[in-house]
């Protein structure tokens, strides 16, 4: 869609990349203008959209579970069962421990992230325009283009990794993995000397898990959103730009569907793999 006549292309892009924020300053809590607010800045739009999509996911699957039919299932029930079987097979093929939490967690991650990614296919001006009519100046509708959301998801996975590593291996076993691997020696003195090296390498590998989860999801979806915005700018450049931008939009949207599904799948699979590793007691 075309950019506003009162905005330059740069202003239009900046506007669409700006979250609806509330932050704490010396004057109290204020909306937007949070450049120097520091830590206490809340991205209201990301939180609201994430919550609504999570509620939609829970309600949709709850309705299927409540009204499930063995004979002649409806299309929505068949679709939900297909997703469930896909996730269940992925967990059985990858997770080698015994934990009833893993399959529901994987299903939640996959569907929730998919729905958040799917918001990237909504025309970039549609919902922000509707919000502006209600007096809301900024609105980003793709939560996974917000690093705060992707890092929150990865932090939740990271805490589960730590929890199950300690639960399965014991605190001593968990510390032993951080200090006695990957280098070991039969000589006790050499083994003690290697502890700082092992701890450094294992800590980097452990911390890299949530960082890689968050940045991979954020980077791919942020880049996709930016391309949609650039296409919208192109569509404002006369009839030729509108036609060319429309064609580009359809091509990129078709390709981006693969990215949307793939990023949700990768986040789910890496979560399963990391938790499987946390359940392995050496």
Backbone structural class: mainly alpha
Overall morphology:
globular
**Largest sheet, spatial ordering of strands:** 2-1-3
Instruction: Round the Cα radius of gyration to an integer and report it.
Output: 23 Å
Task: Outline the secondary-structure elements.
Layout: H1 9-16, E1 21-25, E2 28-31, E3 41-43, H2 44-66, H3 75-94, H4 102-118, H5 126-133, H6 147-180, H7 188-235, H8 238-278
Tell me about this structure.
- The protein is mainly α and 282 residues long.
- It is 71% helix and 4% strand.
- It contains eight helices and three strands; from the N terminus they run H-E-E-E-H-H-H-H-H-H-H.
- It has helices at 9-16, 44-66, 75-94, 102-118, 126-133, 147-180, 188-235, 238-278; strands at 21-25, 28-31, 41-43.
- It has a three-stranded antiparallel beta sheet with strand order 2-1-3.
- Helix 3 packs across helix 4, helix 6 runs antiparallel to helix 7 (188-235) and helix 6 (147-180) runs parallel beside helix 8.
- The mean pLDDT is 86.
């Amino acid at each position: 869609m075309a950019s506003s006549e009162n905005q330059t292309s740069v202003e239009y892009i900046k506007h669409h990349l700006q979250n609806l924020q509330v932050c704490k300053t010396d004057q109290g809590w204020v909306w937007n203008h949070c450049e120097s607010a520091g830590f206490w800045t809340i991205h209201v739009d990301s939180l609201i959209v994430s919550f609504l999509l999570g509620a939609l996911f829970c309600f949709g699957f709850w309705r299927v579970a409540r009204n499930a039919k063995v004979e002649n299932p409806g299309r929505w029930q068949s679709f939900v069962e297909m997703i469930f079987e896909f996730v269940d097979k992925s967990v059985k093929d990858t997770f080698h421990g015994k934990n009833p939490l893993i399959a529901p967690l994987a299903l939640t991650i996959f569907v929730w992230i998919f729905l958040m990614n799917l918001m990237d296919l909504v025309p970039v001006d549609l919902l922000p325009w509707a919000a502006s009519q209600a007096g809301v100046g900024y609105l980003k509708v793709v939560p996974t283009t917000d690093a705060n959301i992707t890092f929150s998801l990865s932090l939740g996975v990271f805490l589960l990794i730590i929890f199950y590593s300690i639960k399965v291996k014991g605190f001593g076993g968990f510390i032993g993995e951080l200090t006695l691997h990957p280098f070991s020696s039969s000589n006790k003195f050499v083994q003690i000397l290697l502890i700082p090296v092992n701890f450094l390498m294992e800590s980097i590998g452990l911390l890299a898990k949530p960082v890689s989860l968050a940045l991979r999801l954020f980077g791919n979806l942020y880049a996709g959103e930016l391309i949609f915005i650039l296409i919208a700018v192109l569509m404002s450049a006369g009839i030729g730009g509108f036609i060319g931008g429309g064609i580009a939009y359809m091509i990129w949207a078709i390709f981006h569907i693969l990215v949307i599904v793939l990023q949700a799948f990768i986040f789910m699979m890496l979560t399963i793999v990391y938790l499987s590793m946390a359940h392995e007691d050496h």
